[in-house]
Write a structure and sequence with these properties.
homodimer, mainly alpha, 11 helices, DNA-binding
DNA sequence: TTGGAATATTTACATTGTTAAGTAAATTTG
DNA sequence: CAAATTTACTTAACAATGTAAATATTCCAA
């Protein structure tokens, strides 16, 4: 079936073309600039051709959302060498903040916008990429508990808390809710990192053993 | 100037009519159902009449966003009688979670969507409602520090952290990012409250003074 | 009464996602 | 190889949207 195979490959090539074009619009001109017509223009096909490769616009969003998770995992390559689980977790949080601030559009798609999730629940799927990411956090949290850095408890519960915290910071920041709070844009990420430090200090129980 | 006054009043009446219609659509059919044409239909005017009272759609969103803050402050009436600042802060957090889960559309407008903020920065305004709400949190945080419940430090910094935490919970929940994590929808709010408990326990330094 | 301001509507435009119908080329089939 | 069919794509069109310009109506003061 060499022919069917080549066909398949070509189909995927155009799919990729569409995604590349969407990405380009996404990154260079922001979210609202992704229109079927502009995508078509970029890939030099007619608008309706896009629908031969994606059922609707939301399906494109979902694909981009997936790409976002790939990009985020690149940010986490620096975790492998860190032995101390609490420091690893801290670094993980910093990476998360940095990713969100550097790629706010991706972040929106991954963690804020409704469209990708709607598409996903249509397909009966279960947000594999998101759960995988959360799974890595859970491992680290478990490790922290075993080694006595965090109070023993439900690692899921604690993972949810940690995730919520950093997500809260990023999503408030990229949706302009901290502008009055942190007027100087350059101070945004540092302020968020400081908040993370405070948080990590508070949940670390090793400190409590030291006398005041 | 009795006449000009009545005129003014009538103008405001129609403005109010428009906002009421928007609210109705908002609450009963969700965000995307707010269209100028449907608003016009409800108030029995032509679509373009709406533009005599609001410059554009975003200005309506901004007004609704303001109403959301009013509604949220209703949720906080139960705080007045609480003496202990840490418990007050805890309750404040619970109220925040409950408000977000009960009025997700309002919450989106207030803390997630870009439109109201865009309109605001056009007007050179400074998110008074948001800052006021954060101000009340800051007071409580300061109170907690003075009374020895929280480690002394920058109250703004800590307020940001607390706010980010609860915002993270709510925004993940209402944007369907916790569905796999908490499959049973009824467990959503309880799980979030549990996370808040964990958080409050961790930042409360009075506990540290007790021996393990 | 009349002229002008305030208020409202009609018409229109550009943009959007998406569907239906049509076409030309490639492929399969007899 | 010729006919039939499938594939890949385009053209045309629809319905909904936000919004602007032109037009009509209402209303009050001179």
């Amino acid at each position: 079936m060499g022919i069917a195979e080549r066909k398949e490959k070509q189909k995927n090539e155009i799919r990729q073309l569409i995604l590349d074009a969407s990405m380009k619009l996404f990154v260079e001109e922001g979210f609202d600039s992704i229109t079927i017509r502009r995508i078509a223009e970029l890939i030099e096909y007619s608008p309706t051709t896009v629908y031969l490769y994606f059922k609707d616009k939301d399906e494109i969003f979902y694909a981009l959302h997936d790409l976002g998770f790939e990009k985020m995992s690149e940010f986490n390559h620096n975790l492998d060498t860190i032995q101390n689980p609490l420091i690893r977790m801290h670094k993980m949080g910093e990476n998360y903040l940095r990713f969100g601030m550097e790629y706010p559009e991706f972040y929106s798609l991954m963690f804020i916008m409704g469209e990708p999730m709607k598409k996903m629940s249509e397909l009966g799927c279960d947000w594999k990429v998101g759960d995988a990411a959360l799974g890595r956090l859970k491992e680290t949290v478990t490790d922290c508990m075993e080694k006595g850095y965090l109070a023993k408890g439900d690692p899921y519960q604690v993972s949810l808390a940690v995730w919520s915290f950093v997500h809260g910071l990023v999503s408030l920041a990229i949706r302009q809710r901290l502008e009055k709070f942190v007027p100087d844009e350059k101070m945004l990420l540092p302020t968020m990192e400081q908040a993370l430090n405070w948080f990590m200090n508070n949940i670390d129980i090793t400190e409590r053993k030291r006398p005041a």
